[in-house]
Design a protein that fits this description.
Length: 616
Amino acid sequence: MATAPAPQASSDDSNVEQKKKKSRRRKTSHLKLVPETRELREQIRARCREVAARLDKSVPLTKDDMEQVARKLLEEIGHGESFLGWTMVMLSTAFWEDQVAHVPPERRLFLLPHCLKHAEGCPADYDEFGLDCKTCGACSIADFRTVAEEMGYRVLVAEGSPIVLKIIVSGYVDAIVGVACLNVLEKAIDKILLAGIPCMAVPLLSSDCRNTSVDEEWVMEMINNRSEEKGETTRSYLHLMRAAEGMFAEAELERLAPRLRKGPRLTQTDGLSAIDPIAATETIAYDFLAKGGKYSRPFITLAVYDALTGGQATEAGGTEHLAKPELDAVKRAAMSIETFHKASLVHDDIEDDDSFRYGEATMHRQFGIPTAINVGDYLIGLGYRLVSRETGDLGAETASEILDCLAQGHLKLAEGQGAELAWRDSKNLALEPLDALRIYALKTAPAFEAAFFTGARLAGSLDSYREPLKLFARNLGVAFQILNDLKDWEGDDNNKMEAGADTLQGRPTLLWALALDAHGEEQKAELHRLASDTETPAPERLARVRQLYERADVFEKAHRLVDKHQDRAEKIADEIQPDELRRLLYYLIDSVLERGTKPTAPTAIQEITDLTQAAS
């Protein structure tokens, strides 16, 4: 693996070996103690700066890299692993310190936690950015916020882990500095570090969430960290992430895929009667394309293409590189992947009669089933047109092969969805775990596979990449879908809104199959009754299903299957060349298969919206 090595590392082989994953769900509470004295904290921080100065900063540190270096560092100064988490934060902060210093304060986001306020009698009210501390002054939040805002920072007093990436991808800030407890920093560390986003943090001195404290001088030092000198720049996926999302912003979407009917943009209250009938389908389709999501599939296409053509988009001038007109054909091909994905969402929502998508009513609930079906079909046609009209720039052979890849993906997706519908509508709720995994491989993997194949074919021949990328996409897609099943039992503020909805709606999930496989006939019969019972209130049924799932160790078994498919994906990544593509595959594994973070709360979603609107 081509990542920043530990100080003693000297070969690519040793770096690949260092990549081997530890238990992804191990207990870490014993690793997150804060050094008791200021003297000890100063000693470890100083040592982190010494070590960071010798690290290769051309590529981001991974969490595993940091852990290995931090363990060696603590061992050298005579301390055990109890300070490991704290030391990793200090090491990461030292790694990025010079690059953050070069980012102007007005392009930085400063995150502060609620728990720095005095829990008893805090007089501050909440405004659109969290706590309104300016009129208070009873705690250190006001001091930090005042200094930061006077320098030009955007400041958010809120839990940072669920919203940091969304804010920075929006394009208003280029670096993050923050204060948080080690629990929050642990949850945020993978995505932020792997994406190559400059960031610094000062950990709280405790994690009890009440009247906690922090090394205030360090926070002020971090806020005032500035330098005119530009040092070594770390490769970053941020430019590609912004490009993938930016393609669906109104102006760029219109430039790359001009609307033919020029209908007005929809508002929240618009119904069909408010739209010109001729322009209605196009208007609704374009509105849905721009509505939301992570845009991970077009990102994959852009990033694979970039990785196989030199990796220029991950360098310091990545934004300028991606703005070159000759890349418009590549962008349109990447957009086609998203149009197919969005079409499948529209049709899936109809087939499953889902109520919410992106925090709003689903399309068929807003405009009716016939209109939603038609809009989904329109999005499919738009996707094929985005590629077919680029034959002149891409070449007939390239365009033909990409279109064939997209068609294959569509066929597999339809087969997977058809298998799910056939199982659900047959009223035979027997399901083997292997059958559930086969459905997942057909339903989820093709979209990833199409994104990988399209990016690779745009860069050149697919011959040496076809099989490894196919297997990688399959394992990534299956693991992703299993995690999606697990998240269904946590609730999903953007889409499902209700924990356990898949069970009540009769979807063939792996969790269901694992429960049936583990239980005896009596419990199987009870599960069948619970799934089909329309008289008993849903919360009671779900509570009992959860009990049966837990008794069968279903959730733990599902996590182990995620581990298994993740291991397979990592083995493929270990062998792939060039280094830029290998790094990308590792990044996708850790970001797409993110675990352990609860869905963003509605208040946090609103904070994102308010912050980005205010910034614009």
